C-alpha cells in the first residue's frame, strides 16, 4: 500500500517541447555517428583486405623467385650458393619495405577549397608587403619627365604649373596624371595637355599651345594676341616678329575676344590679307571696325557682324579695279579710295570751318560781354 501511495504521490513529469526536440536531436545525432562509424569500419576492412591481397601476391612472387634461384644445377658451386643467398636477402629487404609502405596509412589530401582560401589571403598580403617596402625606398620617387610641343613656353614653367613635385611618388603621379594635365592648362599659352607614361619611370608631358593670331601694337611695343582671345602681358622682341602679321590697335578684353571669335569663322584667304584692325566708331555704330588690307583696301564693318559681312569681301574684290573703300556698316557698297580720301578731306575742311566759325562767334560774344 505504501508503494502505491508513493507512486500516486510522485507522478511522472511531462517533458517540455524543447526537451522533446533535444531528445530527438540527440537520438538522430547518435544514429548518424553510428552510421558514420560503421561506414568507416567498412572502409577500414576493405583497405585491410586489399593490403592482405597485395601481401599474398608479393609473397607468391618472392617464393617463386626463390624456388627458381634455389633449383639444383648440374654443377653446383659454393660461389653460386653465396650469390643466391645475397639475392634472397635483398629480395626479403625489398618485401619488408613494401610491407611497411602498405601498412603506413595514406596521408589525407587537402581539399582544393582550403588551398584557394590560403592563396587568396597569402597573395594580397605578399603584394602589400612588397608595395610597402617599395614605398619606403628612394626608388619610389624617381621620375624622368620630358616636355614636348612647347614653343613659346619654357619646359620648367610647364613642370612648375603642373604641380608635380620631386618628392611625389611615381605611383601617385601615374594615378593622378589627368589631374596634373588639367593644371597645366592654367597657363594661358596652353590649349591642351596630356601626360603619357612609359615603364618604368618615364613621363612625357605633351602640350599644344594657342596660336598667335595677331599683335596688339602701342607705340613700338607688340603684344601677342592668342587664338584664345588673351593678350600677352609681355611684349615680344621686334627681331622675333614675322614678315607679315595682323596689327590690332585696341586691347579691350571683351572686344579682343569678340574679334578673335569673329575671325575664327573667316577663311584663311581673307585673314591672310588683313594688315591692320582699329576701332572707328560712328554715331550709329559704337563697335565699328576699320580694316586695312595688304593691298590698301579699307573695309568698315561692325564688330558684332564681322563673321556675317566680312566674307562678302571675297566676292567684291574681283570687281575692284583700284584700291577701294568698302562700307559694310549699314548695307554694302564700295567706292575708290581716292574718292573716299577726297570726300574725307572735304568733310574735314567743312568741320574745321564750322569749328572756326564757332570759335569766332564765341570770341565775339566774349568781347560784347566785356563792353557791357
Automatic annotation (TrEMBL):
Instruction: Tell me yes or no: is Cytoplasm among this UniProt entry's keywords.
Output: no
Database matches in Pfam families:
POTRA_1
**GO biological process terms held by the UniProt record:** cell division
Instruction: Report the InterPro entries cross-referenced here.
Output: DivIB, FtsQ_DivIB, POTRA, POTRA_FtsQ_type
Q: Report the superkingdom from the record.
A: Bacteria
The main location class comes to membrane
Question: Per the record, which residues fall in region Disordered?
Answer: 1-104, 343-372
Subcellular location per the Swiss-Prot or TrEMBL entry: Cell membrane; Membrane
Q: Basic and acidic residues: which segments have biased composition?
A: 1-63, 75-93
- Cell membrane as a keyword of this entry, yes or no, is yes
The residues covered by the POTRA domain are 140-210
Keywords associated with the record? Cell cycle, Cell division, Cell membrane, Membrane, Transmembrane, Transmembrane helix
Q: Which PROSITE patterns match?
A: POTRA (PS51779)
The protein's topology relative to the membrane is: Single-pass type II membrane protein
Q: What is this protein called?
A: Cell division protein DivIB
Upper taxonomic classification of the species? Answer: Bacteria, Bacillati, Bacillota, Bacilli, Lactobacillales
Amino acid at each position: 500500500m505504501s508503494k502505491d501511495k508513493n507512486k500516486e504521490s510522485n507522478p511522472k513529469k511531462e517533458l517540455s517541447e524543447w526537451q522533446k526536440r533535444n531528445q530527438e536531436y540527440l537520438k538522430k545525432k547518435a544514429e548518424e555517428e553510428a552510421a558514420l562509424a560503421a561506414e568507416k569500419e567498412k572502409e577500414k576492412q576493405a583497405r585491410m583486405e586489399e593490403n592482405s591481397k597485395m601481401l599474398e601476391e608479393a609473397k607468391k612472387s618472392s617464393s617463386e623467385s626463390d624456388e627458381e634461384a634455389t633449383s639444383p644445377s648440374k654443377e653446383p658451386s659454393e660461389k653460386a650458393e653465396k650469390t643466391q643467398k645475397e639475392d634472397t636477402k635483398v629480395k626479403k629487404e625489398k618485401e619488408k619495405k613494401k610491407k611497411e609502405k602498405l601498412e603506413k596509412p595514406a596521408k589525407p589530401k587537402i581539399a582544393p577549397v582550403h588551398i584557394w582560401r590560403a592563396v587568396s589571403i597569402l597573395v594580397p598580403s605578399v603584394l602589400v608587403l612588397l608595395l610597402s617596402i617599395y614605398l619606403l625606398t628612394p626608388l619610389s620617387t624617381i621620375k624622368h619627365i620630358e616636355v614636348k610641343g612647347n614653343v613659346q613656353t619654357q619646359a620648367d614653367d610647364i613642370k612648375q604649373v603642373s604641380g608635380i613635385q620631386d618628392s611625389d611618388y611615381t605611383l601617385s603621379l601615374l594615378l593622378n596624371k589627368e589631374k596634373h594635365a588639367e593644371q597645366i592648362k592654367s597657363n594661358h599659352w596652353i590649349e591642351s595637355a596630356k601626360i603619357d607614361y612609359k615603364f618604368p619611370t618615364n613621363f612625357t608631358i605633351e602640350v599644344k599651345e594657342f596660336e598667335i593670331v595677331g599683335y596688339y601694337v602701342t607705340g613700338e611695343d607688340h603684344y601677342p594676341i592668342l587664338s584664345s582671345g588673351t593678350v600677352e602681358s609681355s611684349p615680344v622682341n621686334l627681331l622675333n616678329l614675322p614678315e607679315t602679321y595682323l596689327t590690332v590697335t585696341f586691347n579691350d578684353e571683351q572686344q579682343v575676344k569678340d574679334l578673335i571669335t569673329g575671325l575664327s569663322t573667316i577663311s584663311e584667304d581673307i585673314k591672310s590679307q588683313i594688315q591692320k584692325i582699329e576701332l572707328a566708331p560712328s554715331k550709329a555704330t559704337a563697335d565699328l571696325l576699320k580694316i586695312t588690307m595688304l593691298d590698301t583696301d579699307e573695309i568698315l564693318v561692325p564688330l558684332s557682324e564681322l563673321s556675317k559681312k566680312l566674307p562678302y569681301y571675297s566676292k567684291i574684290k574681283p570687281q575692284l579695279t583700284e584700291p577701294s573703300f568698302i562700307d559694310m556698316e549699314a548695307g554694302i557698297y564700295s567706292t575708290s579710295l581716292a574718292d573716299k580720301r577726297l570726300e574725307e578731306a572735304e568733310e574735314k575742311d567743312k568741320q574745321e570751318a564750322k569749328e572756326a566759325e564757332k570759335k569766332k562767334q564765341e570770341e565775339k560774344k566774349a568781347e560784347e560781354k566785356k563792353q557791357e
